[in-house]
């Protein structure tokens, strides 16, 4: 079972839609494309083969103006139905039930009434469920907030990992999606000569990225654009708690400066990414890309509780980094359950 606090799975591979849930008028408001690095060309071949076979990934075609040092080289891949579809597909194909709109509020060890092994009681806004093992995948600051005040939080505070986790930093930015009428397609095709552009500071100090999103994904849906703000702009506005309407007006002003003559969109949606991308991944021991949280001294067994996510992988906030950490977390849970005798 997966709990997702938002109304759709995907996390930073979030897809915004205009209209019905199956609408092809959409944008990728978080990750823009999947990049396979040359140095890891064989990494996760099975996952990529599965996604290609399901026709969910295809090469990005079109001009990308400007560059970003963090991208490196490699092949860029897109999903016509939005990158959130990849996450939903992988969960479904693995037989995982995703419960959206459910946020974990607290976690405690509970003993079985029949004297069996202890389990995790995870509370949410409307109740609680009990599990044999728990894996946390939120950004590290959210993991720490969840664990604080609970028993596992005391374990973590006593570990050498605690200081490292508290030092993890993320970038912050806004994503703004613009949805247009089909009648504006030819006008947009002529106005926007690229599928994506990295905006220089000289051009604008609020925007860092502009995507002709519908063209980037080669979709049949109505045209759409997506812009990302710069990190300094995002951090400043979020810390000052500037109203979303004000942020939207500022980003639109910058976009019309970068793309003068842009037609009026049907709708605009601004999404704040408080934790966009991890700046410096954690340095883990022995090639680990997840962390099994246990008390320093314990009497008897405790159920597995594993922390993972892009911050735990040396590949950082990339698709491969997320898969790498998830694979390690799954192996860690299985090994812990074997060690406790719950799996044979």
TrEMBL record:
User: What single Pfam family name could you report for this chain, choosing any that match?
Assistant: Amino_oxidase
GO CC annotation: what is one?
extracellular region
Q: Which InterPro entries match?
A: Amino_oxidase, FAD/NAD-bd_sf, RNLS
Lineage, top-rank taxon, reads Eukaryota
Q: Where are the transmembrane segments?
A: none
Q: Which PANTHER family match?
A: RENALASE (PTHR23357)
Query: What is the name attached to this protein's record?
Result: Amine oxidase domain-containing protein
